[in-house]
Amino acid sequence: MALVHHGTVWTEDGSLPTFVHADEDDGDPTRTATRRAPDGVHAAPPVPLPRPDESVRADVLHVLALRGDPERVADGAWLPVGELAEPFAARVGTALAQHAGTAPQQRPDWFQAGWYDRVEDWIDECLSVRGSRRTEPVRTHRVWSISAVLEVPTSDGTLWFKACCDHFRAEAAILHRLSQRLPDLVPTVVAADEAEGWLLMEPLAGASDRAEGAAEALAPVWAAAQLASLTWLDELRTAGCPDRGVEPTLAAWHRVLAHDPEMALLSDDERAAVLGATDEVEARVREFWSTGLPDTLAHGDLHPGNVAYDGQDLRLFDWTDACISHPFLDGSHLTYFVASHDADADADRQLADFAEPWREAYPEADVDRALALAPLADLVFQTVTFAAIAAATEEGAGDFTGTVAFLVKASARQVGALPAET
Q1: Looking at the chain, which residues constitute the CATH 3.90.1200.10 domain(s)?
Q2: Least C-beta-crowded within 10 Å: which of 280, 345, 381, 421?
Q3: pTM of this prediction?
Q4: From-to residues of CATH 3.30.200.20 in the chain
Q5: How far apart are CA 319 and CA 178, in angstroms?
Q6: Bridge partners, 325 (sequence order)
Q7: Domain range 111-201, CATH class
Q8: Class assignment of domain 214-414?
């Protein structure tokens, strides 16, 4: 961890401090790093460091810019960055130059100098309107290639701030509309800057990685909310909610197969099988969309990790992938995650609960066939999602490496073009 101030870096006994982030630790490694560095914020994405061999887990370097008084940092010494040993000096120097000057293409704003000051100024203006105030600097919860989530200590308790990369900038406007239409099912928005893509929100009761019972409680409630949204989809379109119906989805999927760099990760035989299955996959996806159900509001990444549930209050968060699409993509995605993480879960019952409101609303629709085809359609849908995210993030970020390759092979397996994984 390199905590830097005006060209100097804080050291302990002449070395950079280190920390171990275990899987069971609270939050993301970027949060852990900033908790160990008073008033420090990430000046760059975590930088991978060389490792002695492939059997050793790679270390990363967190480069943090000090926002506060260097006198508050005790038990160490400030040394010129250039005096650091390699491989640290060059990497810290590069990160700082990019932080203060010209950043790599598609690097998010939160790694740029002055961004946190702008955010705090905006938050302070929002809080003053409601007679509240910020009591401390904002704190990092997670910063990475697609979003920054910060905790905001205020005189009325902790609020949450979120900003998205350009690809997901419309989330602020979309959630702002949803907070008016579905106030009991989404985060409570305190303020939104739709141009910047900034959100200030109330905390969520029951938020956790896997809120117990969340998926079972959500399935019928979310289906009912999707049905209700049919009357106000134009509001979402105006807010920038993308159309991801059958034609846009298949057109984007074909572009992935033709041009995505992850197709090079497939073996020759795998690539031939994936491309050979194109017509069959497309036919089944078109059949899925022709079963008689309308496109509606879709969360786009519906799984228990995006649901806050405390046994009573139920709220969906992380609306970056929100779109207008087939409703059963959400139902299938949710069921897949539940089944893959909990062998004892009754995924069939959950999916039936999700589908029941649709059966009642559209008795002529072939709901059973739509349910059968939904897993394949979701693989195609998610292929498009992750290809677009990878294309919109900084080169070398590596947050989603291998995902598109995995998904296109999984689609081919669904139609028997590749053998099932063992």
Answers
A1: 214-414
A2: 421
A3: 0.93
A4: 111-201
A5: 10
A6: 296
A7: alpha beta
A8: alpha beta
